[in-house]
Amino acid sequence: MSKNLFRNLTTIKVSILKSLIVILFFSNKPIYSQLYSLSVNLNGYPSTQMIRSYQTKTIFIVLDDLLDVVGVQYKFDINTLREEILIGDSKLYVVAFNPFLYLIKNNGMSLSYQMLQSTDYKYGKIFIPLKSFIEFLNRYTNMKVDFNEKSFLLLIKTEKSLTTLDVKSKTENPLEPLKSITEPEKSLKSNQTSNLSISESKKDYDLYDFLIEEKSNGYIFRIKSRKPIQSISKNLSGNYLYLRIPNSSINLEKFNATINNGLIESVSAIQNDKNSDLKIKLKEKIQSHEIVREKRTNDILLLLHVSSEIIKKIKDEKRSKSLSKNNLLDVIVIDAGHGGRDPGAIGYKGTKEKDVNLAIALKLGNLIQKNLKDVKVVYTRKNDEFIELYRRGQIANENKGKLFISIHCNSTDERPGTRRGSEVYILRPGRTEDAIRIAERENSVIKLEEGYQERYKHLTDENFILTAMVSTANVKHSEKFAEILSKKIEEGVAINHNGVKQAGFYVLVGASMPGVLIETGYINHPEDEALLRSEKGQQKFAETIFRAILDYKNYYDNLATKQ
User: Are 269 and 257 within 8 A, CB to CB?
Assistant: First the structure.
């Protein structure tokens, strides 16, 4: 009896000690106040899988965890933070930091559904608001989901084959809709590899994924496990940390990866009979390491304690790399609107918009190349050729542009026109009928593209998603450049200026960087046309845009060095 009592007391002490280790390690941000797991009852039976979640004013869950539970295939695009989910004959698109769900059925019917909260993105996973997503699933799929808040239990009933119910093309609960923008499909050359990392529900591996979480005094290397694991052995030798996880199978595709997150350089694994052997290559020295198991899940937590000096060094290195690679304004993309078989607007005296746009673009590029040696100029076209709208955005992205300037001329149906003046546009929902009309006219060029019906078929609804996808940083920088450019036009060009406006131009959607579209003037107004068709007027616009670039570059680069 005394031996059993002693053994029980020892077990309790070890449990308390491990709990203290976890509490100390998460002293600034306790893990249990951040992430916890929801239990699942699937079709009347307890599931061995759990769903990670966190709670603020509402509960958010890891979308992939729920999809794995019900056995649905999905793939995630790390570049756009967009997940494509296959539900029967339909595709459901979910985007990080976005309140819209976008459902497309094979028969062409589509639906935009707005949730009460935007999705979140943490630890490489999309977190989705649970209540809103349950309402969507119950309404538009044959899955029935309920959540017991008292027991933190998800009750899921699903058919053998998950499908969507019939829908009519519409938008549910829209905010202010953007009238006409779309995300051009990326055309991948045959010798290129898609950036989509496909994650299918894999139930045949005990150790199926890992996450790395950065904390104030170290890192957590979290190994996702489908079952409890006991007696894990570990050994630190030089810059390598070795783990042997007995009686387990491991997903080798997931656990052989280059990380380079500052502390961990790479992870590699082999299946050694019934053991999973893991090797973690460290870039810096660690103070200590400990393995604990999380109570509410089967996850294995490898706690890596690092000195404050190493933490500071890693942060400084990340900041330095970020400044040198990403933050300086070193690539400007100049887009001359229209071209080739698309003349654009036609002036009162026959001036073609495409010719004015190209002339100003080439003059602007020449000024940049002569005066800013550290800036690369990229043209979407340098001659009279037709370039599809989606391709213009691709050109900008492929060249890692930092600023996108699309040059156009405005027009109305009047001959001669009575409206005149220049305008600067940023990508946002159109606030006025005039802004929407101008965007629709510029966007109508897609009808000259071969196969445009297929490429832009989901344009009307998907604009909701794409509007929300525009990053806060890009919007902020676009607004700043538009403000500077607007002021320079007022000061430097003898033309009425109508200020900064917002509308949904397709060409701005495709470019994943700050950008503006400038309407230099109304080409159907005789006085505006005279200025725009003249060499002097074109040069004046090029010089004005260039002066705006100089001020913006000074602002942009100074901001980068202060971060």
Answer: no
Query: Both 341 and 456 in a single domain?
Result: yes
Tokens representing 177? Answer: 């809709």
Domain that holds residue 483: 330-562
**pLDDT greater at residue 36 or residue 521:** 521
| Residue 302, φ and ψ in degrees, nearest 5 | -100, 110
- C-alpha–C-alpha distance, residues 122 and 157, integer Å: 28
How many Cβ atoms sit within 10 Å of the Cβ of residue 290?
14
Q: Amino acid identity, residue 498? A: N
Report the 10 Å Cβ neighbour count for 42: 17
- Give yes or no: residues 343 and 318 share one domain: no
Residue with tokens 């370039």: 387
The number of helix segments (H) and strand segments (E) in the chain equals 13, 30
Mean pLDDT over all residues of the chain? 77
Token pair of 252 as six digits: 């080798």
- What CATH code is carried by the domain that includes residue 129? 3.30.457.10
Indicate whether 196 belongs to any domain.
Answer: no
Q: What is the pLDDT of residues 203-258, one digit of tens each?
A: 478 999 998 888 878 888 999 999 988 889 888 888 899 999 999 999 988 898 88
> Over the stretch 109-165, which tens digit does the pLDDT of each residue have?
777 788 888 898 888 889 999 999 999 999 888 889 999 887 888 999 988 776 666
Residue 454 inside a domain? The answer is yes
Q: State how many domains the chain has.
A: 3
Q: What is the DSSP letter of 160?
A: S
Report the pLDDT value the prediction gives residue 450, as an integer from 0 to 100: 54
Contacts of 42 (CB under 8 A, 6+ apart): 69, 70, 156, 158
State which of 175, 196, 228 marks the end of a domain.
175
Asked if residue 200 belongs to a domain, the reply is no
Q: Which of 323, 339, 357 is the last residue of a domain?
A: 323
What DSSP state is assigned to residue 538? H
Point out the least confidently predicted range of 6-20, 213-227, 346-360: 6-20
Percentage of residues in the chain having pLDDT higher than 90: 32
Q: How far apart are CA 508 and CA 332, in angstroms?
A: 14
- 480 within a domain of the structure (yes/no): yes
Decide: 226 and 255 in contact? Cβ < 8 Å. no
Task: Give the three-class secondary structure for 35.
Answer: coil
Give yes or no for a contact between 275 and 245, defined as CB atoms under 8 angstroms apart.
Answer: yes
Note whether 246 and 292 are same-domain residues: yes
Give the CATH number, domain containing residue 361. Answer: 3.40.630.40
Q: What is the mean pLDDT of residues 412-431?
A: 80
User: How does DSSP classify residue 455?
Assistant: H
